[in-house]
Model the fold of this input.
Amino acid sequence: MVCGLSFQKVQAQNRTLHLENHDDKKYYLGIALMYNTSRFNVSHDASFLFHDSVSAINPLNSGGFGLAGMHTYRFSDRFEVRAIFPQLLFAYKDLQYDLKTPDPFYDEAPVVTKRVESIQLGLPVHLKFRSDRINNFRVYMFAGGKVEYDLSSNSNARKADDMIKLKKIDYGIEAGIGFNFYFPVFILSPEIKISNGVQNIHARDASFKYSSTVDQLKSRMIMFSLIFEG
Done:
């Protein structure tokens, strides 16, 4: 008898809806902690075939992190629009060059890795589709676009020929899936998304050895976020 009452009490606790009135809000805020792994999609320049120094260019995956503010507007039980601003991402992308004839004067190795660091101020906008809420759990999917401004862009810099220079502005498309977990005072949403740039961000300089062999660079990123909303 006692065991039966205890089991019914646990079931009742599990059915307790946290933030029951949250779904009535038209607008709500949140913050996100983000980790990303990113790389370049590389297109070789036509001169690469005749280059006497570089034999191969390989993009490598690199990690980064970020912070963001979330602004969400609900216009139906199923659909929301979300603007992420400000979004500040610290991202690192590596290019590995295989050299035919390493220059001993510069102590070059047969394989050279060039790291391109970015501090990106972004504004992604997403359309979200939400499932039904099951107790204190919900699934959602989203897709949209983004615009990013690289605060550390070196497109106007003039340095040695080992530089890879990037343009300041990038545009892209994004899509992903997330999960809402409702707690008594906040909602925790683990989320994963794919974010791909659609324009060439390489500021090519034919006089630079590592830049001249590359025609286009487009960003590719997978991002995992922990979002806290209330």
The longest strand covers residues 79-99. The radius of gyration is 23 Å. The helical segments are 2-14, 209-212.
